[in-house]
Specification:
It is a single chain. By secondary structure, this protein is mainly alpha-helical. It is built from 21 helices and 2 strands. The chain has a domain of 191 residues. It has a two-stranded antiparallel ribbon with strand order 1-2. The chain is globular and about 70 Å long.
């Protein structure tokens, strides 16, 4: 029983301590086994934590036995447990997929280092989710970001280096803004514990220092989140990173950034300050809608499938931000629900694209001509993921868009609901390009014979596809937890 009490910290420590082991072995197979063990054990821990939090309420874990706010506290509430489950589940499935994928894309002598960097990204993301200390959020953000720059730069295309450098520059600016924001809050309150910050901030909320701290934090997190127009690093990073890396980052990194935004906006500053005293609701709504429409429009004209899906990610982040901007229980629930559903759909899509890349090399719209008949399982997964992206029932994507439209209609925002539907139609346009190429176009005369992707790659892809369909029909867990988390986050308010 003692070991179970330490799960809030073990879920972070397991991948963190496993990363040096990968470098120590410095061979692909042992590094893969270490990564698999760490990610699946973390996933098991996250499942247990979600069950425990749902049953008993928020878990507070004191590092070294020091009582907060003097000591560092790991605090896992329902929202944190929900995001931990997403991150660890995606990591566990990506590690299964990664063995064959990385062997094809990365030189043998570098594979172990890719696993080590991936585990550091994973550890950083779980740390951001688990910690109750504002400065620790920055520390774990830097661990995940620095490892992300390294792992993106290892893509086989030379442009991966410039993509990683661009991300490094923008990521460093974002991290600096976050650090300045946390420093300003510490200056005014003398504490870094998030619960303590939430208790002390109302007394000094009207000062320019706190408002400046809020602005620095939200812009810094916006950069990490790839919120329009701070998203310029994302398309290249996703397009040129190794396929397994793209799948992991797209399904987890931006979701954890949304979690950090929610945690600071509602958990630290409070909804009243964030969305009323600061006119952040209107700013988020405008930026969310601009992201949905502009990124979807750009995605329609992309030839590179990874790049198309990368722009689609910017649009989907727009939906999440739009839900938060509604400042209602339904709106924030829709945002939290879309964090979960988008991880499932984008994970499935990027893994399916990775499986195609394994067989045919670079994945462009023209290169997948006729593959619907030659790689039926992989292309079918791509189609189901695409349908979820559009929001077609009975997929998970439909459920979150339904709640988002419901949230807009509750506030009589008919034009906003209409723009959400236009965003879905644009998604239909670029997903149809893939369907048309795969099923209705003839393969090039000189196209080589192509076999279906290996089973070790298809299993994680289809696990996510089935999850997309399951959570589109049975919404008890996803919607139930999202609603409960929203109630706790907004203090039961509406």
């Amino acid at each position: 029983m003692d070991l179970l009490d330490h799960l809030p910290v073990l879920v972070v420590i397991m991948p963190l301590m496993s990363a040096p082991l990968c470098v120590l072995f410095d061979r692909a197979r042992p590094a893969w086994l270490v990564s698999m063990s760490a990610s699946w054990l973390s996933f098991a821990a996250a499942v247990y934590l979600l069950i425990q939090v749902s049953r008993d309420g928020t878990i507070s874990y004191r590092l070294g036995g020091w009582a907060p706010p003097w000591g560092i506290e790991y605090r896992i509430d329902l929202l944190g447990a929900y995001v931990l489950l997403i991150v660890t589940a995606i990591a566990a499935l990506v590690m299964v997929f990664a063995r064959r994928s990385l062997e094809k894309e990365i030189p043998a002598d570098r594979i172990a280092r890719v696993y080590a960097a991936l585990l550091l990204v994973f550890a950083g993301l779980t740390g951001i989710t688990a910690t109750g200390d504002a400065f620790n959020v920055f520390v774990f953000l830097e661990i995940s970001s620095l490892a992300s720059y390294a792992v993106i730069s290892m893509g086989r295309d030379r442009r991966a280096l410039s993509a990683a450098f661009q991300y490094l520059v923008m990521g460093t600016i974002g991290a600096t803004f976050i650090l300045i924001g946390i420093g300003l809050l510490y200056m005014m309150t003398g504490t870094l514990n998030m619960l303590d910050l939430a208790a002390r901030l109302p007394e000094v909320a009207d000062t320019r220092t706190v408002r400046a701290g809020f602005a620095f934090l939200t812009v810094g997190i916006g950069l990490k989140l790839a919120l329009f127009p701070l998203h310029l690093w994302l398309p290249n990073a996703y397009a040129y990173a190794p396929s397994a890396v793209t799948a992991f980052l797209s399904a987890t990194a931006t979701k954890v950034a949304v979690y950090a935004l929610l945690r600071f906006m509602f958990g630290v500053f409070g909804a009243e300050f964030s969305l009323n005293k600061m006119p952040f609701d209107l700013i988020l709504m405008v930026l969310g809608l601009a992201g949905i429409l502009s990124a979807s429009l750009v995605a329609v004209f992309q030839e590179d499938v990874k790049r198309m899906l990368a722009y689609s990610s910017v649009a989907q982040i727009g939906y999440m931000v739009l839900g938060i901007s509604l400042a209602s229980n339904t709106g924030v629930s829709a945002a939290i629900l879309h964090v979960f559903n988008h991880a499932l759909m984008k994970g499935a899509l990027f893994l399916a694209v990775g499986a195609l890349a394994y067989r045919i090399g670079a994945v462009t719209v023209s290169s997948i001509a006729g593959l619907g008949r030659r790689m039926p399982w992989t292309v079918a997964a791509l189609v189901v993921g695409g349908l979820s992206l559009i929001g077609v029932p009975p997929t998970a994507g439909f459920v979150s868009k339904w709640y988002l439209v419901l949230g807009t209609l509750e506030q009589d925002l008919w034009p906003v609901a209409l723009l959400v539907l236009i965003g879905s139609l644009l998604a239909l346009a670029y997903v149809w390009k893939l369907v048309e190429a795969a099923y209705f176009a003839e393969p090039a005369a000189d196209a080589a014979a192509v076999r279906e992707a290996p089973l070790s790659m298809l299993i994680p892809v289809w696990a996510l596809v089935i999850a997309n369909l399951y959570f589109g029909v049975n919404t008890q867990v996803s919607v139930g937890v999202a609603r409960q988390a929203t109630d706790l986050l907004m203090g039961g308010g509406g």
